[in-house]
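Q: Got a minute? One more chain.
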Amino acid sequence: MWGTRRPLPAGAVAVAVAVALALGGCSSVNIPGNWRRNETGTATTSEAPASGAVGTRERVTLPPFEQENPPVPPVATQNYDAAGAGEFVGYAMEVVNYSQRQLDGRLLRAISDEGCRFCQNSADGFDEMREARIRRVGGEIEFVVEAITYQRTNDIFFVDGTTYTAGFVDADLHGYVLSRVPEDSADVIFVVGLEGDEWRILDAGIRPAGTQPAETQPAS
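A: Always. Here it is, folded:
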């Protein structure tokens, strides 16, 4: 375990992320375009098709919704080093998958900095899908780490790798398909560090085209 560490310099981190790596905010959540919020702010979606329209839309069988226990951080995240950074990002992706299955963004927000647009957009998207009564089938994300870089100036880690997202379907509660997205992959960077004594995702985005992951550097 680490001792008490200095608070993260939010402004410096933002500059490091935006300038040094040119990270763009991105969301892994695909929100269907055929639902909207009404004037009261309540999410709405279409009703089941009328009897004469049955068969005109694709329909899938929805698996039973099961309440799950949240994922637990691995022991390696107790250390503030490159290995801990990699394990934390792996845990964070488990949280994303959990949040996607449960349609609940609270845990994802809890492990993320408020300035992480990817994190906040994803958490908001899962909550909005729940409010709109939209179910997702598939879409599990796997992250493969390629390199971990320590930036001593800001005391943060950049975790480079590739995400592999399974194809998924978003459907209403009757199983009628609202959108279908094929499997996909992307080269991404996660920026992680400590807030107090807790790991946090500070930012995440697509790796700039034409760049390669930096070599791992020790956090000593």
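A: The radius of gyration is 19 Å.
Q: Perfect, thanks.
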